Amino acid sequence: MAIALADALIARNPSNGAELGRVNPTASESVGAIVERAREAQRIWSTTAWSERRKILKQWARAFVGQADTWADAICQEIGKPRGEAMGEVVMSLGAIRWTILHGARALADEKLRAGRQAFLLIPGARVRYRPLGVIGMIGTWNYPLFLNAPAIAQAVAAGNGVVWKPSEMAPLVGLKLQESLDEAGFPAGLVAMVQGRAEVGRALVGARIDKGMFTGGSENGHRVLTTLAANGVPALAELSGFDPAIVLPDAPRASTIRALTWGAFVGCGQTCVAVKRIYIVGDAKPWLKELAESARSLRVGDPAAPNVDMGPLISEEARDRFDRFVRATVDHGAEIVTGGEPRPGPGWFYAPTVLSASSAEAESALAGVFGPVVLVRQVHNEEEAVAAANSSRFGLAASVWGRDLDAARAVARRLDVGTVTVNDAVTPIGHASAPFGGTKASGFGRIHGIHGIREFVQTQVEQTRHAGGFRPQLFPYSQRIPTLLKAYLQLFHR
């Protein structure tokens, strides 16, 4: 993480508080000029052949492979993730970039639309083009500083755009390393530029002359960013907070489901937008609560630099204190602590994996928007009650359904108001490079990854062509035959 001291961003290891390095912030007043330089580079880049864009993207991807261990070390130290999670982020990021390299040309290729029945109306066919937007302004996040930043940058430049992006002030060193890798890959000077800093630098970027904004982070900050973009008439892509439910059906195998839910709740110290935060048990919840609490207590919490650690720290002392306030407020609203519920002593910002039990939605509402190692369990009588409870949240990022009968589980899954729903799995499927990812309701809009993701960074243009001098009976002066011919068309094709 990073905290402010004078003007510099000071990166610290959240496991022990040790300083990792310092990064000078970008002057807010210079952000506009950086955007304009990106625009100049983009004008040339937009005319560059796909083969050349692909070549540079491939060079960038090869560098990732060669530096995988270095990337994992950087994420472990600055974010506090166990090494397996950090290496997983590197692998998922590379997979998403490789998807763009392999499939970008197809996703961006012109599409021909036939006239079909409309040919009888003398309406010609059409060609759909996907044109670059211009300069994309991105505000990144810290919890997945590579996976939620690098693939989006790859898709934006693949589509012919320039990018000016701001890494989170909580992860300035990983941001610096990512920009260095982009500079070394061979992209034109100024095409992809980084600005570092706190909120004022983000405000300057959002207020600059960008052509689309992308924000990844919490709902509160996201709403401020989106308000500014909307006021400037700038479209946006937003991936915001989640409060993900899991519905456990009566036939779910307990042992394997408990293992999976434990991981889904506490991966990344629960600082994962698609982490499981609410579990609805259809039927008797007591045995599930007991085993889930035992599973949570068995997790090895500590410095990820040590071997055999399952869960690291929260990103900062402030984040840990805020998380603890969420837990206390949930208890005040009627939840019971089954296990955990308190910070861990010693250096670093650790917190015990926490399992809460609740019997009503009141306690649940106090936990909404929490970011940390906690999961709340609630017993429900049937699937109807479970679906209603899951959909009652203002968030709609992801959800999961658990059970042996896959048809029954899928039937429940189809009723959930979320961007991604999984059956007998959680979190991991977000790494699918082809699958669009994003939320509904207060969890954001737009999608990243795959064809849907790359097309977030283009504008659609339709071209329709007619031969010069071609026959067009709809021109002035109108013929009395036009209404008769149109009525005949209706009778023929729309009876």
From TrEMBL:
User: Per its UniProt record, what InterPro entries does this chain match?
Assistant: Ald_DH/histidinol_DH, Ald_DH_C, Ald_DH_N, Aldehyde_DH_dom
Which Gene Ontology molecular function entries are recorded, alphabetically? oxidoreductase activity, acting on the aldehyde or oxo group of donors, NAD or NADP as acceptor
Specify one Pfam family.
Aldedh
Q: Which UniProt keywords apply?
A: Oxidoreductase
- As recorded in UniProt, coiled-coil segments are none
For the Aldehyde dehydrogenase domain, which residue ranges apply?
A: 12-461
This one is known as Aldehyde dehydrogenase family protein
Q: Upper taxonomic classification of the species?
A: Bacteria, Pseudomonadati, Planctomycetota, Planctomycetia, Isosphaerales
